[in-house]
Structures are given as C-alpha cells and as structure tokens.
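User: Assemble these into one structure.

Assistant: Restating your components, then the assembled model:
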Amino acid sequence: MPRALKGALLPIGLMLLWELCARSGFIVAESMSNPTAIAHAAWATVLDGSLLKATRETFGAALAGMALGASLGIVCGIAFGLWRLLAALMRLSTEALRPIPSVALIPLALLIYGYGFRMEIAVVAFASFWPLLIITENAVRGIEPRLIEVSRALGFGVVDRVIKIVLPAALPRVFVGLRLAAAVSLVVAVTVEITANPIGLGYALIVAQESMKPDRMFVFLIWIGFLGWLVNAVLLRAQQRWFGRMGNWAEHGR
Amino acid sequence: MTTSFLAADKLHYVVGETTRLNILQDVSLQVREHEFVCIVGASGCGKTTLLRLLGGLLQPTQGSVTFRDKPVTEPDRALAIVFQDYAKALLPWRTVAGNVELALESRRVPRGERGEIIHRLLGQVGLADRADAFPVQLSGGMQQRLQIARCLAQSPQVLLMDEPFGALDAMTRQSLQDEVSRLSAASGTTVVFVTHDLEEAIYLGDRVIAMESRPGRIGEVVDVDIPRPRNQLTTREHPRFLELRHHLFNLLPTGH
C-alpha cells in the first residue's frame, strides 16, 4: 500500500497545482478548466446517464469488433501456422493489407455501412485481426514438435489435434495477443468516434470540445484513460491466474 | 508361412537431397510377440531413427516396416512410443490424470470408464497420489513414469522406448528398469528398447541387437539367456551377464 501511495503523490500534487493555477488566474479556465469543475462535470455526466451510455456504446463496438477480428485472426493464425503452403499462398496478400492503418479504412467503412455500430465494428475488427494473426501463427509454429508427434502417435485427426494440442499449447501467447488487441480496439473505437461516428465516448469528447465545455471534455478524457488501464489490468490478472499455476509453457520449450 | 509380429525388411533411410547421407542401410529385424528386444549402439548410429521408423513416425527411403503383416505407413495406437525427452512429450496444461486421459480420449473410451483406468495405470507406475499435480511439479523420474502410464493407456501391443532413462540419475534409472521389466512381463506387452547403455540392454533384454555406425546397420544379435526375474545385484554379477558384456563391448566402438 505505501508503494501505491508513493505513486499517487505526483498526480495529487499536480492536481493541486492545477487547481491553484486555475484559481489564481494563471491559466485560463475556459480552455483548461480545473479539477473541481471537472469533478462537478463528472458527477453531472453520471447523473444524466450520458457517461454510461457513451461507455456502453464504445465498449460494445470495441468488444464486438475485437471478438470478430480476434477470432478470425486466431483461426487464420492456426491455419497458417499448421500449413506452410497456405501461409505461403497468403503471404503477399497479408503483407499488402497489413500496413494499411485501420483508421484509413474509416471512409470505406462509412461508404459501405454508413454511420452506426457496424462501420465501427468493421474498423475495430480489421485493427484487432492483425496482432492475433501474427502472434497465433508464430505461437503455432513454435509449438514443441514432440507434442505434435504425440498427437500423431495417438492418431488424433485435425480437429482433435487443434483442440487438444495446438490451441492449448499456443494459448498463453495468444492471450498476450488478446491483451494487445484489447488496447488497440479501444483506441481505434474512440478514434472512429472522434473522426466520423456520432456515438460513444469519442463523440462525447468531440461534442464537449465543440461546445466549449473543457470540464466535460476532461471527464471523458480521464475516463477513457481509466478504461484502458482497467481492461489491461483485468486481462493481466486473468493471464496470471489461468497460466500461472501450470508454469507458462509458452515461455520454455521449443 | 508363419505370420510375423513386428518386422523391418531391408530398411534404408537416407537424408539430404544433394549430399545424401545414409542413416540406415539394409536393416532387417524381426520382433516376436511378448519379446523384450534391446537395440544398443553408439550415439549417431541411427537407433532412434530405426525406432521412429518402427513406430511409423518416419517413412523409410527403401524397404518396409510391417506389423502383423500390415505395412506401417503412419503411427498406430498399437505401437506406443515412449520418448526420451519426457518433459517435452507431456502436456503441461493438463494434470497427471489429464495426461493419461489424453490417450483414453484417443481410444474414445467413454468418460465414465476413464477414472478407474487412470487410477489403475497411475497405481502401476507409482503416481496414484499425484493425479492432480501438473507435470512441471514432478521430478524427472516421475515425468517419465507418467509418459509410460500414458503410453500404457493406449493399450498398446508394443512399447517402443527411445532411450527412456538416458536423462535420469542412476538410482531412478535402476528402479524404472525393474518397473518396465515387471510391467511388460505382467501385461505381455512387447518392448523394443533403444539405449546406448550396454549393461542396461543386457539387463532388460531377451535379445540384444548391437548396431554399427555410419551407416547404421545391424552388427550382431545375441540372445540373453539369463533367467528372469532379474535382479539389479545378482543378475549383473551373473557369469553369463559378464560374458555377454565382454563380447558386445568389443563390438561397439569407443564411447562404450
């Protein structure tokens, strides 16, 4: 606890300084607001339900997009990892598509789906597909060859081999990919909302800015940062809990 | 013509496309049912390759492996392979019981019957009280016992063992030698046992096949006419044991 306390000293000090500067007129409250005003605005967004609504929209789109992109990435990663020929056939296509920044797809997604959840989900799915494809493919390649021989010796077919050997063996590393994709999908969802889609936290942020409400803008800004931290913390905890006891088999062996 | 059990017929195994390297050359052998055959040779003589060919993990360049007169073109559950590197052959995410269950799943043993079989097999290898442990929590000897239990769960007719005790300390090795001897005698399972340890080969085998190196080929085959059950102390002092050791020692190149 004392360590967490030490870590909190700097932010608390800065907040006090900020409050002090704002009250003394050293910085202009119209653009920077101050912690007390932000706290009031935060309470207001909770009371009028706008915080919850925006959070649900952003989370919903990010989660749906990630579920779609990540599962496609895992499936393709396993297939590419198991069958070299398939990987070779797909290499050029994936290398050509991968460098496209996901936000560059916003105009295309808008043309196809218009405003709303579907376009946001599509862009997030594209963004979270790549980390899982690459990490899963490498994880499958890196599986202890002896385990593959064990599954051959036991006469498992492709489905059993994937479910009983390949997937669990690759899982610790796939999970790292999921953490990466979770962070990416939140960033991309908010970006889509700021630039195009009139829903969620990103849109709330831009509306607050346009209506000259810096206190409200800061509420959403801080909240987005907190959500990103929370998602990673939860996934990290889950990772330690699920893979800690058995020894992290992705790390040793090869 | 009598039917043969497990047989290798004029096996050649060559690797490399441009610089062709003969790993095995003209290897033929017959393994009889219920027999304990030891294949001994220096490292690099191709004995592991031979075992992998017998188990169907590899296909010969020329020649054929047959099991009950059927060609072995892929791994067969009747031929269980015990790998040397037991730590890599176990599923680290499954418990001891779960690792044994894997083999039962491959045989499609109904879920309700598995617990009893697992309990019996773990009892046979002395791991009954470690059923819920994960492999990483076991010693090397216990991990190898677990792999053997999993292979037995395949209910194999042949155990193909690739230097199974090579990485274990002397004490553990001796007790595992006796356990495998006892298990194979009790169940009538045929064993093909690869080792670089001449004394281990004589101690365990009904027959010892000595291999020569570069290219790997059969050197000599001797029958081990020493009574069973064998004993770590008296068998190793048996005049016939010493005689065979002397005889085979001269056959194998340095390193042994």
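Residues 13 and 60 of chain B are 5 Å apart (CA to CA).
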